[in-house]
Specification:
Oligomer: single chain
CATH class of one domain: Alpha Beta
Largest sheet: 6 strands, mixed
Distance between the termini: 172 Å
Number of helices: 4
Radius of gyration: 62 Å
Length: 218
C-alpha cells in the first residue's frame, strides 16, 4: 500500500477515481403562499322569532250580480178572472177525527131497537178489511171448510170496535165465537148521520168462509 502511494506521489500511477459520489440535488426554496380560505356567512335567527309572513293570496274578482227580470203579467179576460175568485169556490169536504167526513148517511141494517139494548144496528163500512192471518189464529180446528159468522159490535175511537156479540153462524161451526174473539183487530168506520160520526153506535159485521178465501160484508 505504501508502494502504491509512493508511485502516485511520483506521478507514475494516476490517483484513484472516487466511486461513491452523491449527485447534486437542486431544491426550490421559494416561500409557499397560503391558499385563501373561503368563509360562508350565515345569519343566525334569534330563538322565538316569528316565522316569515306568507304572501297574501290574490282575491277573486266577484261576479257581477244578475240583473233581475221584471215579472211577466198574464193577460186574462173577465171570464177567466172570475174563475180564479177563491171566494166563489166550493169548500172541500171536511173530515172528523175518524175520517168519516160528510158523505152519505149510513143505512141501518134493522129498525130502531133491533140492536143490543134497543139501539139501531147499522151495516158496517170497513176502514180496512181483516187479513186471513188475523182470522186464522181464531178459527176452530175442527170447523167446516165453508160457513159464515154474523156479529154485532160497538164502534169506538180510531176505527176500532168493542163489546161484540154473536148474532148468527153456520150451525155447529163455531165461526161466530171465533170472529167475536178476533174482532179486536177489525177497523170499521163509524156510522154517519147528518155528516157526523156516530162513535158508540152498533154495526153489523158478516164474514163468509169459502174455499177461495174470506169475504166480509156489513
Amino acid at each position: 500500500m505504501i508502494v502504491i502511494l509512493l508511485l502516485i506521489e511520483l506521478g507514475i500511477l494516476p490517483p484513484p477515481t472516487p466511486r461513491d459520489v452523491n449527485p447534486l440535488h437542486i431544491f426550490d426554496v421559494t416561500p409557499m403562499v397560503p391558499t385563501p380560505v373561503r368563509t360562508v356567512s350565515r345569519t343566525v335567527k334569534p330563538a322565538g322569532s316569528a316565522p316569515p309572513k306568507a304572501k297574501p293570496k290574490p282575491q277573486p274578482t266577484p261576479a257581477a250580480a244578475p240583473v233581475p227580470t221584471p215579472p211577466t203579467f198574464i193577460q186574462m179576460d173577465s171570464t177567466s178572472f172570475a174563475a180564479t175568485d177563491i171566494g166563489k169556490m166550493a169548500p172541500a169536504p171536511s173530515a172528523d177525527a175518524d175520517g168519516a167526513g160528510s158523505g152519505k148517511d149510513s143505512v141501518a141494517a134493522y129498525g130502531p131497537g133491533e140492536g143490543p139494548g134497543g139501539a139501531p144496528l147499522y151495516y158496517a163500512e170497513w176502514y180496512r178489511e181483516p187479513t186471513h192471518a188475523e182470522l186464522s189464529t181464531y178459527m176452530p180446528a175442527n170447523g167446516p171448510p165453508t160457513g159464515y159468522a154474523l156479529i154485532a159490535c160497538k164502534t169506538v175511537a180510531a176505527y176500532h170496535v168493542d163489546n161484540c156479540r154473536v148474532l148468527g153462524e153456520t150451525p155447529g161451526s163455531g165461526f161466530g165465537r171465533a170472529m167475536r174473539r178476533a174482532a179486536w183487530q177489525f177497523l170499521v168506520r163509524p156510522p154517519r148521520q147528518g155528516g157526523k160520526s156516530l162513535i158508540g153506535s152498533w154495526v153489523r159485521i158478516r164474514i163468509d168462509f169459502t174455499p177461495s178465501g174470506v169475504a166480509t160484508s156489513g
